[in-house]
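Per reviewer request, we include the raw input and output of the structure prediction for the construct analysed in the revised manuscript.
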Amino acid sequence: MNTIKEQIQEMINRETRAWNEKDAETLVSIFHPDMVWPWPKDENAHNPLDWIFPFGRYNRKRWKDNWQDFFNTHELIHNNRDTVKIIISEQGDGAFAVVEIDTLWRDKTGNESHWKGTVSKGYTKTKDGWKLIMHTGVLKY
């Protein structure tokens, strides 16, 4: 059996593959039903007072449709990700990962959306396995 750290890394890898393949179904399959995802207004907005909350609490259809719309209108130029740290709770029922990302998207008119910096990801163990329950947007440190 894989260690918890290996299971969390596989979740990170599955998410990365979903971005690479522009696969909204796989992307939403890793989310916990109580998932939340606050976003800084830009990569330098370290103060959470400046963050936004565009998706609200996880809603499978709404989130899948939003990501599919994004995938349909953007080309993935590159998606480089490096897991810096995975921390497992003492109880073995929660985990936290720090991932450095450099992801560049380009829309059909040539506008670029560059996600570059550090993200944090929170995972919770459920009866069906691990799920991503919290994620922050990209910040530069």
